[in-house]
Amino acid sequence: MTNSSKSDPSAPTTTANAMWGGRFEAGPDAIMQAINASIGFDRRLAAQDIAGSRAHAAMLAAQGILTNKDAEAIREGLLTVLSEIEAGKFPFRVELEDIHMNVEARLKEIIGEPAGRLHTGRSRNDQVAVDFRLWVRDQCDAAITGLEALMKAFLAQAEAGADWVMPGFTHLQTAQPVTWGHHMLAYVEMFARDRSRFIDARKRMNECPLGAAALAGTSFPIDRHATAAALGFDRPTANSLDSVSDRDFALEFLSVSSICAMHLSRFAEELVIWSSAQFRFVKLSDKWTTGSSIMPQKKNPDAAELLRSKLGRILGATVALFTVMKGLVLTYSKDMQEDKEQTFDAADSLMLGLAAMTGMVGDMTALQDNLKSAAASGFSTATDLADWLVRELGLPFRDAHHVTGTLVAMAEKAGIDLPDLTLAQMQSVHDGIRADVFDVLGVENSVRSRMSYGGTAPDQVRAQIARWKDALK
Ligand code: ARG
Questions:
Q1: Which residue, 10, 151, 266, 365, has fewest beta-carbon neighbours within 10 Å?
Q2: pTM of whole model > 0.70?
């Protein structure tokens, strides 16, 4: 189907193309329009687009490039457009391709001729670059806020159970007893690093590309410092070619989001395991679980499972944008329009994930007794026994390891745990062992003894809690 046929009564008679009638005799093929238009998704940049245009128009007036009268009409008109969009009354038109042309065309309908002056000294290339940067910057702020809430939720759990014992795992095999508070604080550390990565990325992206125009800058006497400041940027970007052609700020946001989603997925997996009937380490609240349509006993950790999977989408978006950008020559290429949808989806997934994890962590109940009995099983204090042999009997650690291993095998054969062995049984393996060895075989003593900085001892955990509470004030 073409729009050019003169015999087609619906074909426009004056301009064949809604946007660049001067140069074009024919409008786009319907399929061309479908592949080319971005308005279906970049309407999410409307607020940023209007903010950018307002800053640009005000600057043009201040520089004497626009009359104050025109600038004022543009300002008022843009506010009307924004309110139409916010009210859901804006007539988005696919033939106008994208948000930039849609806003400008509507502005023209509202204020007439001055609308045509708004695009002086800029291009859609720097326009989209600034819009998208503003949007991604907002998402960094949202992630930072979301992460702070999540860290606080973990911190509250840590504080409630600073000295509750639980098994610590390596290879998902019982390793050594640890404290609940210590385990919760491990996630505070991870999410704190994610937070600092978002802060860092935000700082780096906070330069304004507006005024780079199509690629080379402009001959109009614009003031890029003024527009940068008006839009909350630290400074204008320093190279116009780079300004319109890189999307590394979005890639950085996606990369940091991927790391964060990976962290979310790890605790999600722990929740899935811990809430199972076989573990019973935690009880998830009804608010964060679902039932089964057939098995009445079920309480499924769906939110945790979905959180475990969100990295798939977020990392997928990251790989997609890397692939779009790879090998693109300077400067702008239309490929780059493909930067948005996936970034939008990744950001939505991340924000939802952070909120869901915060809710779930806040609502979960640690089953303290189960944690404690699990902590004592699986020969979890074997290392404490070996350390005792080194400390009290002066054995080289390798020999102590061997003696302990023999005792573990003995207990395992008898179907009992280490503290259930008699002193006589122990002495049959090493005759120097004394009754006070039993002190170190208890899980409470075990965790209390791990006083090294950053260790699992409740005193260490409390010190870290105090540090984080202070930092998150
Ligand atoms: N919709 C376009 C995008 O998202 C805006 C920039 C268009 N620039 C151009 N030279 N066609 O990338």
A1: 10
A2: yes
